[in-house]
Amino acid sequence: xxxxxxxxxxxxxxxxxxxxxxxxxxWQLAKLGAMVVITARDEARGQTALEKIHQKSGxxxxxxxxxxxxSLAQVRSLxxxxxxxxxxxxxxxxxxxxxxxxxxxxxxxxxxxxxxxHLAPFLLTKLLLPLIKTSSPARIITISSMVHAWGTINxxxxxxxxxxxxxDVYAMTKLANILFTVELSRQLTxxxxxxNSLHPGVINTKLYRSxxxxxxxxxxxxxxxxxxxxxxxxxxxxxxxxxxxxxxxxSKREKEPSSDSQDxxxxxxxxxxxxxxxxx
Length: 280
Prior knowledge:
Layout: E1 11-14, H1 20-31, E2 35-40, H2 43-57, E3 62-66, H3 72-85, E4 91-94, H4 112-134, E5 138-143, H5 166-187, E6 193-199, H6 206-212, H7 222-237, E7 248-250, E8 253-255, H8 264-279
Parallel strand pairs: 1-2, 1-4, 2-3, 4-5, 5-6, 6-7
Antiparallel strand pairs: 7-8
């Protein structure tokens, strides 16, 4: 078993923490003693998640902030709310993600998957970065997927206006997550803040069922969810990876991602384009 350090005194933010792997990540970090803040779109679901996290961890120091990542204004409000309520941020886990079967457009005018899976965590991370840096040593963890290897980024059609295939766009956003991590890590050199990405495993979550086109509600066991959260928790808490940055992990081990995900020119270009999109 890999060593984990006590997270007492650490403040962690887990986006999309009201269900699935995000909630399991939150309760495992809480078990280690961290103060954990989760985000949710729906207050009722968020409060139910808080109760389960408290019950599973025995840690009452759990908090909820509301934000819908299909609204960049709500992402900005989320960052402001966090900064106003919490004195530090030691671990940011960009976990929230969706796979809509049909092309949807957000209130900001962007394709829904691209915004929720990439632009929203990009913006949230940038807004929280000053606080994260003053909290160093700190860690930023972004959930990607093994499907990034099938993704391509067409800078001429980032909004998938010419063709929308849910699985292809999801793969593209997961590739974007790794490229974001690569460039973020480069910019954070010497700051005491690390940035890594990961594949959580193939877990029968609502997101996975959506990806596979499986209809209907199913329960996912807590054991399976904890397995899906294991690499996130490892990257958040293990002293083994305290100095590692810009890498991609699976099953708590560093893995070689696709060659496209290591294209530094593409990572820089995506960063520039993303900055333009979130500021327009």
